[in-house]
Amino acid sequence: MTLETVANLSMVYYMFLVGLETDFTLILRAGKKAYSVVLAGFVVAMPVGYGLFYILQPKASNHGGAIFWAVALACTNFPDLARILADVKLLRSEFGRTALTSALISDLCCWVFLVVAMALLHQGKYFALGSTVAFTVFCVFALRPALKWIIRHTAKEDNYNDFHVCLVLTGVIVCGFIADACVP
């Protein structure tokens, strides 16, 4: 139980840091080449992952594992790819920008697919899906602007103190708890 709690906390903070480092303007400026790379990745990887699950687990009866395998195989690890491209000095090249944009779009789509699939596989699937979408919309359009306003009006000359850090980190835990409560 302790290990599971620590793992869940680690996952919540890891996803927070990935979201914090993500530049969503890349998605808005992505060209047809990046979207075609993402589409090709999904078209090839998802059926292969789905099929591999049943090849390796021929007696499996639930589709949850197969869907997870399909999404996991189609997902790229955006932060690791960015570090690799930076290490080999390809981050600023056309190839690096296309790869990074494709990885960002792919990861975003994979996380959405995974959340939707896992919500639909549970008993209260419509409640889980609806509450997850409602909470996400609330976080993007209400919580984020409110937090930005609070920090802007309490920070002096872009000097963030321990209060701001504790507020954000506590908010991450509270949002993780609410998101977990969305799935019955």
From TrEMBL:
GO MF, one annotated term: antiporter activity
Coarsely, its chief localization is membrane
Q: Does the keyword Membrane apply?
A: yes
Q: Respond yes or no to whether keyword Transmembrane is given for this record.
A: yes
Q: Which residues form the Cation/H+ exchanger transmembrane domain?
A: 2-182
- Report keywords, A-Z: Ion transport, Membrane, Potassium, Potassium transport, Transmembrane, Transmembrane helix, Transport
* Biological process, per Gene Ontology: potassium ion transport; proton transmembrane transport; regulation of pH
One Pfam match, given by its short name, reads Na_H_Exchanger
One GO location term (cellular component):
endomembrane system
Where in or outside the cell it occurs: the entry states: Membrane
- The transmembrane segments are 12-28, 35-55, 67-86, 98-120, 126-147, 159-179
The family database entries (InterPro entries) matched by this protein are listed as: Cation/H_exchanger_TM (IPR006153), CPA2_transporter (IPR050794), Na+/solute_symporter_sf (IPR038770)
**Secretion signal span:** none
Its record classes its membrane topology as:
Multi-pass membrane protein
Q: Which protein family is it in?
A: Belongs to the monovalent cation:proton antiporter 2 (CPA2) transporter (TC 2.A.37) family. CHX (TC 2.A.37.4) subfamily.
Q: Which PANTHER family match?
A: CATION/H + ANTIPORTER (PTHR32468), CATION_H(+) ANTIPORTER 21-RELATED (PTHR32468:SF74)
Q: What is this protein called?
A: Cation/h(+) antiporter 23
